[in-house]
Amino acid sequence: MAKKKKKQKPKQGHPARLQGDVISIERAKVKRGLDALTPQFTRWLESEHGDSELAPMVLATVGETLSFYAEAIELRSVTDFDPPQLFTVLNATIEFEEAEDPDDDSGELRDLVFTAWTVYLDFLQENDLWGGDPAGIEWLLETINSDDPFNGGSAKKPLKVPETVEDAVADMDRMQVLKTGRVLLTWATTKGHNYWDAGPGPKYISQAAQAVRGLFPKEVDASSRHHVASIVLTALEMAGLLDTKTGAVPEHGKNAHDFMDVDDAVTFQSKYGYLQAVLDLLLAEPEKDDEETVESWGLSNLWLLRAIDGEAQPVVHDRLESFSEAGFSGAHQRMKLLRSLGLVNEGSTYDIPGIVRLALTDLDDDAQEDEQAEEPTDPAAMDPFGLAFDEEDEPKRLKRTEPYKGKVLQLKLSLRDVKPPIWRRVLVPTDLNLGDLHDIIQTSFDFSDSHLHQFYGPNYKVSYGPKNPYMESDVDESTVLLSKLFKKPKDRLSYAYDFGDDWRIGIEVEDVLAADDGQLPRCIGGRRMGPLEDSGGPWQWTQMVQELKDEKPLTMMEDTLPDEFQPVPGEDFDPAVFSIEEINENLDLEF
């Protein structure tokens, strides 16, 4: 049996990446806008700096980072964007890339990005091309050129972190978010049964919010309590503490016992997994796309970034003109809600507990790992600062030395709830396991394997997944051969990926064939490109495709498409392009 190897992921700062030769809609708009400015920018650079040869480098850097911004936040144009949100994206991109090479502490990437943006912003200002608030671009220039980009009156304050796993557990046990989780776990598995109508409807959430009402200060309104109740219940399920699928009503999950215990080191993983799930949900980009909501979300997350760096934002500070009053006020409301849960400390600054910093950054502290190695602990409680959640290096999948002679499954993989339909048809040997099938699905739809996934049997009565502390599965996927699940045509299985975007793929056996001399596994058919990572889910992807069809043709796309997929002049660009050849090349590399 061939062994599994590490999935190769695209090395860039945002998961919404190129698929083959097709670029995202947002990236195309950035390229089109910068292409139009290139001649004027080159002339200006020559006249102001005497070196027009720098133009390609500057515009390439601006284009790449502005594309990440556009894929995460709506971009008005390449001359009109939100400065604070752009600054957040720039820092996140730089930190992502620097994490790829932790030994490189030169800061060259940060210097390159900030220098390129300084030149570009000067160009926009001096040529009266800036379409936003003048104060916004001034703020951005001042911020990226300061010795300390986050120095806006905030005090540098190194965060304390728990020194032992017992300290970490004790810190979490004191947090209001843990208390809220325990109360709702008890409620959901007892009184909550009375309001469970085949799912968590509005009345269920309302009663859940009522159950934890006494845990919140009076200034936390009913709407916020409803939001928190929904978040906490979802996090309990994600962390394997609450099981809503096995029985007719919610039951305790496999990790519930540890979660309910207090001050026991072996409970670290269950509590930390829950804490991180809550943070992931609370800090996710809001579904509402109105400007004020997005602005308050971005600003509050920026303050959290400052706290992570030990530069806590003062609670009382002047509003910059680049922020609206509503967005500024909303950001403070979000921080108050986080504070009510114990995720932000009380005091005059928006500081955060050390354990929250670890949960937000997945800090890998070698010194703390060495200290732990000197004092052996229970395996379930080891490495709280490296988080003990890094999977072991997977052994490389070995190539077959002999031709495969067994049965071959012809599977149809259908992405659900998207219009127009997206599907793949693949041939798969029956001696592979579900972990292998996961890799085949990821490659076939050009996903990056950067989120959680799970397989489900009929009626969702049994789940299969990898060993992962963030999510419990009934069965380890690597132990289940496809021959045990798929025996005849019409046998089915479900696959879920990225529980934020919630991509669901139906797997159906179309035929059981004899092996031929061709590549296995291989793709033999399909329709339309796979959706981009973090594009919002089926509904948002469908809307994105429809909006593209409603626009004028993006003729500049012609330079990026293979000859066989060139658009007919006058027709709209269709993001349905995908390449069987490229999928099979990647499958061949994988298997």
Automatic annotation (TrEMBL):
Span of domain Plasmid pRiA4b Orf3-like: 407-581
Look up the signal peptide feature and give its range.
none
Q: Which InterPro entries match?
A: MM3350-like_sf (IPR024047), Plasmid_pRiA4b_Orf3-like (IPR012912)
Q: Acidic residues compositional bias: what residue ranges?
A: 367-377
Q: Which residues cross the membrane?
A: none
Region: Disordered, residue numbers:
367-393
Its name, as the record gives it, is Plasmid pRiA4b ORF-3 family protein
Q: What does the record give as the organism's lineage?
A: Bacteria, Bacillati, Actinomycetota, Actinomycetes, Micrococcales
